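hi! just following up on the protien thing from before. the input was this:
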Amino acid sequence: MNVNLWNINILGIGFMLVFSAFTAASFMESIVFKDYGKHGITIETGFHSLAVIYGVLGVSNWFAPAIVNKLGSRLSLILSVLPNIGFIFSMYEPYQWSIFLCSTLLGLGGGVLWTANGEVIARNSPGDTKPRNTGIFWSWFNMSALVGNTFLYFQLGNAETISDSNRHTIYLVLGGFSVTGLLSFILLKNTPTPIGDGDFTEEPSPWQPIKDGMRFAVSSNMGLLYGAFIFTGLSLNFWSSVYIVIIGNVFPKRNYLALAGILIGLGQVSSGFIWSVLTYKIGRRGVLLCTTVVCCTAFTLVYLAFPSDAATTQEARAQGVPIIASNIYLSLFVALLLGLGDGGFNVTIYATLGQLWEDAPAPAFAVFKFVQGILATAAFLYCGDLLLPYQLLILGLACVIGCIFFLILDYKCALQSEYEVLPDSTQRANSGTKQFYEELEQPLMQTDP
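and the predicted 3d structure came back as:
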């Protein structure tokens, strides 16, 4: 195996291990804290912890390229995983001060982690190998949504609460995943510098991404995308935490939480293939309309099948009565729809940003991740107090409004020939994502540090 392929596979394995741990830990955080109930820790501590993570992450994206440029990609990867390890081990015996400190550091490290990832892929993808290498990385990375939650499913068994001993085992194993991921980054090899790359170039100002981002942020085209950005932030809050809490507050078995996480992961993993195939048949506008229908269907089913206090109750179980009887099979189907819908919106956004700002995509993606992170933070702050029907109403309105404004942008750009809405938009979407990696910014699942 040559050096480039070695590095891409090691990078993918490392990210799979790190995010197997983080995804499972963040999914379970609020329910774990509810069952813990010591040292002032409550279910809202989990929501607020995630608010800190995504709020800090949204800001850190602006400065991460300068940090990676100073430290190099391998050292940046290693150092940025340390907060992830600290965050997971902090839940072994949680205290408020340690949870929020580690959440802040995790948000800071998340931007650096994904930026360094982009540099490794770019440097190890000479010539026409970028599509292959990006595919290899995502094949490894997408497994993270399944590995961690599969472990949780078997570890939790039929337990109705997460005991101290069970919590200790869970976070020791998940912490071990992260440590192993960190150690794998040490195995990355130096990549030969291509001819011309050694020439002297002036080091870019750390403020330049912010200046470029501010310029893009006030453009009319970007303004039409804000609705979709806002929805993805609110959706991130719902599928990554609130829906897991809802299931935990309604159904007694804690391994149902892991099953929901697995189905959400399957929805997100399969969304890229499903929406790509449909793009060839019905175009991007049709795909976004279908995605909106999927999301609104999921929200409607949640409204019908869960009581209004399912997301906010402080009792062991929700006390309200749903419109239709809660059913775990329906709940798992909804989890799959949530993953499909969120993935569809993100894929569409990535394709659009990669085309409209093809020459300089990094600042455009930084604006997207900043808006998404801030809205996710706001949602995590109110979701512990706002009754479920109102949360679903906000999500539904944001979804429809985001779709409408995107369609306006799509129609406007088609008229102006800024880009073409053709069946090969999937290929251009992949091109935009790859260039995004080359520009050292953060990809889709992100949503996760």
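The CA atoms of residues 218 and 367 lie 10 Å apart.
DSSP finds 15 helices and no strands in the chain.
cheers
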